[in-house]
Design brief:
Six copies of one chain form a homohexamer. Chain A has a single domain, classed as Tetrahydropterin Synthase, Chain A (2-Layer Sandwich). Chain A is built from four helices and five strands. Chain A has helices at residues 26-33, 66-81, 86-89, 100-111, and strands at residues 4-17, 42-55, 84-85, 120-128, 131-135. Chain A starts with a strand and ends with a strand.
């Protein structure tokens, strides 16, 4: 095989959420999460960048077919998250606070088993243009 | 007074919403609004650009003090819309469907009385980076 | 009907082209068009913003359903232009130089008959992030 | 001649400035201009978009050659403003406060005589990504 | 504690500066730094991205509260640099040339003592949209 | 020498290409590369970010003079790739499929010998705003 390259594919989804820890009182939640805790939810245009690292296949010149990667993200992440309420509609967040950090870990765990073991994976998630996260950290 | 110039100030807010016409059946709403009608809401990072047109004050070189314009938007729009559920928390949308078009008209109507009659006003609102609206149309 | 609003939908396509006037000599073409005239083509990620202006439908809150507008652009513009060589593959440019100006006029002429007469239309086309055009001019 | 189209060319320059009205006292200047009045200057990456409107030349497919327009901006605006202190180095601002509004008018007045009478001109100037102006207003 | 994640917060400031080495002659400075050495300063809209890496707190879902991180940057960096002349107003650059590289190191040294030892820190600084730096290098 | 910093310079070029493996049949090429294999080429606005890592020179405050780095990229990459057909005009792709991955490796190999051994190099290449690659992978 060829040189080791990282390839990145950007997709986006729109979702509602609120931050809340069910084990805390209402006033504790308000003190810690501020307006992110407001009861009727708010929302974001999440921008998702999926990074896949591996060797170039000399036959295709690809690390992974970007069309295939895009389809994988669409089928397994966008269909599950887009135009949804993360707290109410996505089972992974029934007990888990949908912070950007936790959403990135959940997306990683959904995609990791779908990729060859020879490829490594990293998730970057923009909650707003000025706030974003990466998992795993390098 | 001096030359006529337009000045623009960009601000943003994050909010949840869903599209729904209370006079229609559930299946009509689903057919017309698709996933934008999903019951538990979704959300957006709305980017708002407020355009104010008027003559340059020769003393200051300003059409309007951008700090003052920014404060006006913050106090009257962001405090009302940011981190809120437009359908549930904003009285203007109790009866009115919070489409991007209608949100832009509501923002215009909130800001218009707060500006001098010598200034004209236009609202541009991005619901996503690829979908946006302007009111009034030129 | 309601207030008059403009709505904008952004789409993109990737295409090859070269600038050339078949009535000129080779050296005239090189002098006028410079490296845009190179014989083996170059290409761009064209960003297309379609602006539609009309009154808000009070039932839907829409000027036009953005999903429908997006489908219209996909079926009539992207399918025809995307991943193509504009000079060789698109009949409209058999005789017409595919400058950004001319591409914008061609797109307008393709979309105009597909929209209701009550709606007005404007095309913005980015050839690069620093060069773009609008038709019709306002 | 052909259809009427607007073409846009984006350029940028970096400059220092401060806002100050020489006819006011120091404390009046501080009250009106706040931190924009600080004595040792601050600066911006100004993004300049020059819009030229006219008919398409059927021979070239151009309203104006973008290379020529870019050279015109470089020779007459960037060479004069880039990496300069607007208050100290640019004669036009010896008496005139270099607000974004006034800079846009000065740029318009520098470029207008250099363009054919058949072309119309508009200047958009970004002082920051969130603050920008247009002259003439439409 | 939970998974290791990086979080990023973007802020910006506007400042004037010039590049100059006090130990060199004027002509040496001009030869090396070109128009960045012009005597009356120029300026930039600096975009600052602060990256903090650590484990997710399972109670909050946060690596660090982004509001708190934003306040930290505002109080310790923006208040010191924004709308200032880096050479004249910021003591750290009395002897040190305010190149983007050196500004990034200074920002790192100001923020590092304010963060828990369990968190690691990296600074990305955009001097212009096309020129940026990162410290520490990875 | 001083602290180790990474500096980044962004440049762009416009080029035509198609994906094709000369050892495969036409129908195999169509199946694997889809519309990227269309015979008359398509094209992109490639955005190139060159990252150079090294120690700050305490005399200049630079890792490398960005003007010098920009010239190096212009002379060795842009002059070779810009407004060209990668398959037909660039000898490196006579046998090598011009995928984004392979283009990044070719650019790295062209620039690496031109930089001091004390500096390390990484290439990021955007084929579209949503598809990009990095070489070497970290």
């Amino acid at each position: 095989m060829g040189e080791k390259v990282s390839v990145f594919r950007e997709e986006h989804f729109n979702a509602a959420h609120r931050l809340n820890n069910a084990k805390w009182t209402e006033s504790e939640n308000q003190r810690i999460f501020g307006k992110c805790n407001l009861p009727n939810y708010h929302g974001h245009n999440y921008e998702l960048i999926v990074k896949v690292t591996g060797e170039i296949d000399p036959e295709t010149g690809y690390v992974i077919d970007m069309k295939l990667l895009s389809d994988l993200i669409r089928d397994n992440i966008l269909n599950k998250f887009d135009h949804k309420n993360l707290n109410l509609d996505v089972p992974e967040f029934k007990e888990l606070n949908p912070s950007a950090e936790n959403i990135a870990v959940v997306i990683y765990n959904l995609l990791r088993p779908l990729l060859s073991e020879h490829l490594s994976l990293q998730i970057r998630l923009y909650e707003t243009p000025r706030n974003f996260v990466e998992f795993p950290a390098v």
